[in-house]
UniProtKB/TrEMBL annotation, chain A:
<dbReference type="GO" id="GO:0046336">
    <property type="term" value="P:ethanolamine catabolic process"/>
</dbReference>
<feature type="binding site">
    <location>
        <position position="363"/>
    </location>
    <ligand>
        <name>substrate</name>
    </ligand>
</feature>
<protein>
    <recommendedName>
        <fullName>Ethanolamine ammonia-lyase large subunit</fullName>
        <ecNumber>4.3.1.7</ecNumber>
    </recommendedName>
</protein>
<dbReference type="GO" id="GO:0009350">
    <property type="term" value="C:ethanolamine ammonia-lyase complex"/>
</dbReference>
<dbReference type="GO" id="GO:0006520">
    <property type="term" value="P:amino acid metabolic process"/>
</dbReference>
<feature type="binding site">
    <location>
        <position position="193"/>
    </location>
    <ligand>
        <name>substrate</name>
    </ligand>
</feature>
<feature type="binding site">
    <location>
        <position position="194"/>
    </location>
    <ligand>
        <name>adenosylcob(III)alamin</name>
    </ligand>
</feature>
<keyword id="KW-0170">Cobalt</keyword>
<keyword id="KW-0456">Lyase</keyword>
UniProtKB/TrEMBL annotation, chain B:
<dbReference type="GO" id="GO:0031471">
    <property type="term" value="C:ethanolamine degradation polyhedral organelle"/>
</dbReference>
<comment type="function">
    <text>Catalyzes the deamination of various vicinal amino-alcohols to oxo compounds. Allows this organism to utilize ethanolamine as the sole source of nitrogen and carbon in the presence of external vitamin B12.</text>
</comment>
<dbReference type="GO" id="GO:0006520">
    <property type="term" value="P:amino acid metabolic process"/>
</dbReference>
<comment type="similarity">
    <text>Belongs to the EutC family.</text>
</comment>
<keyword id="KW-0456">Lyase</keyword>
<feature type="binding site">
    <location>
        <position position="180"/>
    </location>
    <ligand>
        <name>adenosylcob(III)alamin</name>
    </ligand>
</feature>
<dbReference type="GO" id="GO:0009350">
    <property type="term" value="C:ethanolamine ammonia-lyase complex"/>
</dbReference>
<keyword id="KW-0170">Cobalt</keyword>
<dbReference type="InterPro" id="IPR042255">
    <property type="entry name" value="EutC_N"/>
</dbReference>
């Protein structure tokens, strides 16, 4: 069906819901690349007026990709909770935006409606929201998960320690891990992107990380971010798998381009659960997503990149993950051109995920061909912390020497803790105190690598 | 050259004995919660170098002189300038009309080559300017019996632009040398992609790649040329490139788990 609205005597027509949602989106390079999005700023606002008047129920009833041909659509439709949806079923998209910002929509209320919210509803509402709205609503929501510690509690901000090395050198990874631990980071996960994506290499890396974790009794989890099929094989061969990692996207075709299906993800989740390695909980999945992933695979089905990204969170939600993060600035300037677009997308992704009940974190990052720099990252990390993001990724000196892009530094995590009074996961914070790594003000001591019992980590045979 | 690890070699540096394990920026100093200014400026210097490499223009005439007496031909993509190139990878994959005409004219006057080499600026013209001519010569020395087309020098070019170049010249194989996305520690890394039976629409899975070519820390020119020549001979024997050559090609990069595109 077609939609229309008039502004200043000009009538704007939008052929279908995909077109309308794309036109209502804030401008970004990926939608232009796909031939989507508003052709003028006036058309963009006209699309927002038209979108604001649509009933949420109409969004629910309009499949973006046909039910018959896409398993993500089937997942969204089949898992929709009509009881949870009932309190908001009478609202338009515009009414939903206003209600989300109202004081009536408190933490408990938002948690109750989450199973009734579809990705397309969340995306539609986000297009009618300014950045402060995305921050304000997300900050009301908490999504708490557990494996060996508790992530997502109010007053906390966790971090993924990412000690990548260009050739997977064990000592190089251990040294970067030590550096991060001395800054009190790594409570979300100590997670390595392997340079060589093989089962043997994955087992060796996991073995090293697990030894470090168990030797020092660190209440956290480790992960090698290899393909899910490798992880299944690693589990079968007795590898020390805490979490199953996989990149996911918002359509069946895009997931196929990643070499995954819902069935494979389920198989991997079952395998990880069978190990019973979590001491506090059984959230065993870790997903990464990012705007532009579906388009880069030619599998976006004419959907704007922010809406199709939100559909990936429906996939994530079905597997009760411990961690999810958008790799927001990583995919490149053809999708998010500059700091402004990266910051907006980071806030959108976080808001949509949280509204759906997904434990969202973020890799606050950019590549060297994007119009962005560390000043933009300072902005996004601050805004996301205010918005209550579950965790952020940190690497030594913000410079990932394996993936060749810039993220946040260990120092940035200390800065956010100092600015906002947020701390690591409580179990991890207790460990830091047992190791005498924090002073009486709760600040990380300035420790050298020969500090106490951690020193063995840095020894050549450590 | 600038130090990659900014705090290295300071007297009394407690991390001194660990810095040989990684070029990551480990053991940075702190003032309050922040990095000290020296480390901040070293990072900004590295970022500036990477950005300048992205935005540098390829000097095609200089590259042509460097490969002489082997003939060469200059082409350009449909992306008119760098901002367009960065936003529109689809335009960077297509030669413009004048370039296609020049390629057709060349093809009409010579017999089809076995291989066409393309030097494309990609995301680092610096890498191409610095390494492409030497790598091309090193490959030629290993390609006895191959009919090699004039070197095609391409600006605002993506990897797939070589598909149409190779098709226009009637080449059996196209080998594109292209600047990889600069990182903070390496801004001049060259990547090489081989595509059998090039034509528009070839997918990345139908290519083989030799990446991380730069000196002294990456894959050296001579080693890269060995690898490329080996792949070329294997491609000619099997009449294909891509996953069919997978077992013999270098290990796949593990960041396949993140969407990272070829230049």
């Amino acid at each position: 069906m077609a939609y229309s609205s008039s502004l200043d005597g000009t009538r704007y027509r939008f052929d279908d819901l995909r077109t309308l949602l794309a036109a209502a989106s804030p401008a970004r390079s990926g939608d232009s690349l796909a031939g989507l999005g508003a052709r003028s700023d006036a058309e963009r606002v006209a699309a927002r007026y038209a979108l604001a008047d649509l009933p949420l129920r109409h969004i629910l009833d309009t499949a973006m990709v046909p039910y018959e041909s896409d398993d993500v659509t089937r997942l969204i439709v089949d898992s929709h909770d009509t009881v949870a949806f009932a309190p908001i079923a009478h609202l338009t998209v515009g009414g939903f935006r206003d209600w989300l910002l109202s004081h009536a929509a408190d933490e408990a209320t938002l948690a109750a409606i989450a199973p009734g919210v579809t990705p397309e509803m969340a995306a539609a509402a986000s297009k009618l929201m300014r950045n402060q709205d995305l921050i304000r609503v997300a900050s009301k929501i908490r999504v708490v998960t557990r494996f060996r510690n508790t992530i997502g509690l109010r007053g906390t901000l966790a971090s993924r320690l990412q000690p990548n090395h260009p050739t997977d050198d064990m000592r190089g990874i251990a040294v970067s891990t030590l550096d991060g631990l001395l800054y009190g980071t790594g409570d979300a996960v100590i997670g390595v992107n392997p340079a060589t994506d093989s089962v043997e290499n994955g087992i060796a890396l996991l073995d090293m990380l697990d030894q470090v974790r168990s030797q020092y009794g660190i209440p956290t989890q480790t992960c090698v971010l290899t393909h899910v099929t490798n992880t299944i094989e690693i589990i079968a061969r007795g590898g020390a798998v805490d979490l199953v990692f996989q990149s996911i996207a918002g359509t069946e075709d895009a997931n196929r381009s990643f070499g995954v299906s819902l069935a494979v993800l389920r198989e991997a989740q079952d395998a990880a659960l069978s190990l019973r390695r979590g001491t506090l909980g059984d959230n065993v999945m870790y997903f990464e997503t990012g705007q532009g992933a579906a388009l880069s695979a030619g599998a976006h089905h004419g959907i704007d990149q922010q809406t199709v990204e939100a559909r990936a969170y429906a996939v994530a939600r079905a597997f009760r993950p411990l961690l999810v993060n958008t790799v927001v600035g990583f995919i490149g300037p053809e999708y998010l051109y500059d700091g402004k677009q990266i910051i907006r997308a980071g806030l959108e992704d976080h808001f949509c995920a949280k509204l759906l009940g997904v434990p969202m974190g973020c890799d606050v990052c950019y590549t060297n061909h994007a119009e962005a720099d560390q000043d933009d990252m300072d902005g996004l990390m601050t805004l996301l912390t205010v918005a209550g993001v579950n965790f952020l990724i940190v690497v030594p000196g913000a410079d990932d020497v394996m993936l060749s892009y810039q993220s946040l530094s260990f120092h940035d995590m200390l800065t956010l803790r100092g600015l906002f009074g947020v701390g690591p996961a409580p179990e991890f914070a207790d460990w830091l105190d047992r190791m005498d790594m924090r002073d009486t003000d709760g600040r990380m001591r300035l420790l050298d690598p020969q500090h106490g019992r951690l020193a063995r980590l840095a020894s050549p045979h450590g | 050259m600038v130090e990659v690890a900014p705090a290295a070699d300071l007297p009394g540096d407690p991390w001194a004995s660990l810095r040989d394990a990684t070029r990551a920026r480990i053991g940075l100093r702190r003032t309050g919660d922040a990095q000290v200014l020296d480390d901040v400026l070293a990072f900004q210097h590295a970022h500036a170098r990477a950005r300048d490499a992205v935005h540098a223009a390829l000097d095609g005439a200089a590259l042509a002189r460097a490969v002489a007496p082997h003939p060469s031909l200059q082409v350009r993509s449909l992306a008119l300038d760098r901002p367009t190139y960065l936003r529109r990878p689809d335009l960077g994959r297509r030669p413009d009309l004048a370039s296609l005409a020049a390629l057709s004219q060349l093809a009409a006057t010579t017999s089809p080559p076995d291989v066409a080499f393309v030097a494309g600026d990609g995301l680092s013209a610096v890498a191409v300017q610095r390494h492409a001519a030497r790598l091309f010569h090193a490959c030629l020395l290993r390609l006895h019996g191959w009919r090699v087309a004039p070197l095609v020098i391409a600006t605002q070019a993506r990897v797939a632009l070589a598909d149409e170049v190779g098709a226009a010249l009637g080449a059996s194989l196209v080998v594109v040398m292209i600047g990889e996305r600069p990182g903070l520690s390496v801004a001049d890394s060259l990547g090489v992609y081989l595509t059998w039976a090039p034509r528009a629409g070839r997918r990345d899975a139908e290519r083989n790649c030799v990446s991380n070519i730069h000196e002294p820390d990456g894959l050296g020119i001579e080693a890269a040329a060995d690898r490329i020549a080996w792949l070329m001979n294997a491609a000619r024997r099997l009449q294909l490139t891509g996953v069919g050559l997978k077992d013999a090609s270098p290990p796949l990069s593990g960041d396949g788990q993140r969407v990272r595109l070829s230049p």
